[in-house]
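Researcher: Can you fold this with zinc ion in place?
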Amino acid sequence: MSDRLSVRWTVVARDCPRPVFACPACGGDRPFHPSGKLRLNANGKRLDAWLIYKCDGCDRTWNRPIFERRLAADVPPGDLAALRSADPAFVRRLAFDLSALRRKTPVILQSDRVDVEKLVTGGDQGATGVEIALVVPHPVGLRLDRLLAAELGLTRSRIGALAKAGRLDVDGGGNALKRPPRDGQCIRLNLDGMGDRQAILAAAG
Ligand SMILES: [Zn+2]
């Protein structure tokens, strides 16, 4: 019997962040979603690259500049190959680049829908505590307490009470529960003597 179950949760956002601004076609502020497509234009030795978005309301296209008038020689070869082949992982990384999006618009919708893949990395179900290591490849919109509540089968108020009682310890302190989970963040939960210990351990891993 080990005293701690170690698990790794990989938290993947289902939806890309959507910038909001006035759509010239259907009017009013509208969210725009990435179409999954890129455009790459060559003009002599210079290149332009855009990520293509579409208005949620009317499908009007918005080309988000990735770079403009960049010397082809200044673009890393790996990036250029990814741009040319519209590599899905590369497109996804661009779509989740929140700081680049924030330079275009202050309003960005982030969905709280995530998929969580759980992997046991140590210990067993006889443990009296659980340590959760988070892998968050791209920013997600939901709060950490919501994620923990949903994935451990507990209410959000119970999560808060566990933190208050000193049983739940989160990297970044108590306020981190109200913020989105971060890549590399660790959560430790002491289940010693708790009636639903088994259910929580089963849900964790
Ligand atoms: Zn529109």
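Model: Folded with zinc ion in place. Residues 23, 25-26, 30, 55, 57-58, 60 surround zinc ion (CB under 6 Å).
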